[in-house]
Amino acid sequence: MPSFDDLTLCLAIDRLTQADSTHYAIWVLESPFPGGYAHHDRLWDSQMAQIWESWQQFFSLRGLPQVPHVPSAYVPQFHLDDLLDRVAPAAEAGGYTGRLMQGLGVSLWEWLFDGPIRQTLERSLGMAIGQNRPLKLRLEVRPPELISLPWEIMQPQPGCPALSLGPQVLFSRTASTVEPLPEAELDISLRILLVLGQDDPGITAGDTEQVLQLPQEAEALKQLLELSASRLSYQGASPVVCQVQTLLEPDAKTLLKALETGYFNVFFYAGHGVPAPDGGMLFLRQGGNLTGTELAQGLAHNGIRLAVFNTCWGAQPDLQQQEVIPRSSLAEVLLHHGVPAVLAMRDSIADEEALSFIQVLARGLAERQPVAQAVALARQHLLTAYRFNHPAWTLPVLYQHPQFEGHLLREAALAVTQLPGQDLRMTQSVVLRCLATPTRLWRLYDGYLRVGRLPDNDLVILEPWVSGQHAEIFCRTQFENGTQETHYYLRDRSRYGSYYFDNHGWHHVHRAEVPLALGTAIRFGSPEGELMEFTLEGSPKSSPPC
User: Could you tell me which residue ranges the FHA domain spans (predicted)?
Assistant: First the structure.
């Protein structure tokens, strides 16, 4: 598996003894330096219990159990306002809810990073800063009663950003009892299977409004994901091809059949879901449900590297008689089955919040950011859009497999377009070649080639009739009935247009896109422009068209 030059600090929390629910052990599972493998014992006292209970009353939409219960005679009592005055002064913006958010965030940080654990964190951060690299901080929470806590809001002191907001720290949760990851090459494009399930189990399949709205929602989400990647081409970034295939209210058989093709690397689900003992329950369609355990098989064994769930409580374990069921959340179950990365919501999230988060997340992935970095930037966006004292930014929870390096896509220099359905190492690259000088050629990196007069294009043509951002050549893969086919296109964005030659002669295309076959001759901006050929690298030179 590819290895990236990152520093990793992995911590675990577990009960000190099974008989005592208030004493915990914290230790270092992985450290960036040999002396960092520390161990520390912590008591969950009445201060932590009260501030967590108060936080739930203001921010949690689902009744959660006390985590854990501390008898009043066991530790001295105190006033919550006194604690908030200490960790979040009243002068801080956001009123009481802002103080409460900061209060729990600072308290969780101080509880986790205490004694030798804090020393390991500080030295790890110092190494990361000195080497100008991010620190990957992964937290394994083993006691089921502590999983519901919003560890993502931890901050060292008021006014400092939460650790999950990056960029110096890339925070995620993890687990150790997981299926091993198979060897896998990094991808050159995002291939997303977008599944829209039943939005509300109370709406029947025959409801006209539901039938009309679901395709519109699917198309809107598809465009949102694709445009988040394609917009990079206008900002000097090396763009990534993002292909989205949608399934609307599929039955379980149809969904699993699509996954079994092995074509997709990102799975995205939007719809209704609830906590349940077997990894939650997803409502695909009227009368058709799917448990997390059933879905895990299709995701883990068919190339899915990242699973994203825009559904309520995907990161929340189930309860039985107010007791948390271990390893019952959807995110945990998928990780235990070997899915490299899972992003789910800790509580209920509004549609506009989720869409705003998804847009920034998709853009980050298209920029080849590590998954944790893309999540941090999207979380930052939620905080900015909905304010610090709003719970939206605290809801996304990222789990990453301990063997997962955090990257989905290859570096730009390694992402060369390959022929559809074939191995990169055994095929020729698709190129645009100058017919007058065949040694001059331009490869389609990430399935994309930008042509124009400005220097940030992949192919720069300094001719007066060529516009600054003149045209693009790109590939698009369509997935239908279990098969995939990739097609190439020429998209003109110029003032004067482009010209291509087929069996019927030269054709003019202006501010439109046309299919592009291998062997097609192209001129940009003028019939007198430099003659190019869209072909395979190493193929014989074609005769210039008449």
Answer: 449-499
Calculate the CA 370 to chain-centre distance: 9
Longest dimension (CA), the chain: 95
> Which token pair is 300?
């883990």
pLDDT 10s digits, 197-214: 886 655 444 443 343 366
Return contacts of 101-106, CB within 8 angstroms, 24+ apart.
101/55, 101/59, 101/153, 101/388, 101/389, 101/394, 102/155, 102/158, 103/51, 104/51, 104/52, 104/55, 104/150, 104/153, 105/153, 105/154, 105/155, 105/162, 106/155, 106/156, 106/157, 106/158
For residue 261, which amino acid is it?
Answer: T
Please state, as a whole number, how many other Cβ atoms lie within 10 Å of the Cβ of residue 74. 11
Cα distance between residue 203 and residue 208, in whole Å: 10
pLDDT in the model for residue 415 = 53
Q: Residue 212: its pLDDT value, please?
A: 39
Which residue stretches of the chain have pLDDT < 70? Answer: 1-6, 19, 60-94, 199-214, 227-240, 412-428, 446, 477-484, 541-546
